[in-house]
Amino acid sequence: MSGAILPKGKITMLINIEHLYKYFNGEPLLKDISFTLNENETVGIVGKNGCGKSTLLKIILGELDYDKSPTGEGSMTVRDCAVGFLAQNTGLDSQATVIEEMTAAFSKLADIKKRMDELTEKMSACVGDELEFAASEYSQLSSYFELHDGYNFDFKIKQILNGMGFSDLSYDREISSLSGGEKTRLALAKLLLEQPELLILDEPTNHLDFKTLIWLEGYLKNYRGAIIIVSHDRYFLDKLCSRICDIENGYLTSYRGNYTEYARLKEAANIRHLREYEAQQRQIAQLEDYIARNKVRASTAKMAKSREKQLDKIEVIDRPQNFDTPPKIKLDYTIEPTKDIVRVVGCPLAVGEGDERKTLIESLDLHVRRGEHVALIGDNGAGKTSVLKLIQGIIPKESGNILWGNNVKFAYFDQEHAQLNPHDTAIEAVSRRFPQMTDGEIRKALASVLFRGEDVFKPISVLSGGERAKLCFAIMALTHANFLILDEPTNHIDLHTKEVLEDALKDFGGTMLLVSHDRYLLNKTATRIIEISGGTVRSFDGGFDAYIAAVSEEEKAEQEREAAEKRRRDEEAAASRSREQYRGKQQRAEAAKRRQRVKELEDEIERLESLIAQLEEEISDPATAADFELMNEKCNQLEKTRADVDKLTDEWAELSE
Question: Contact, 231 vs 201, CB < 8 A?
Answer without folding.
Answer: yes
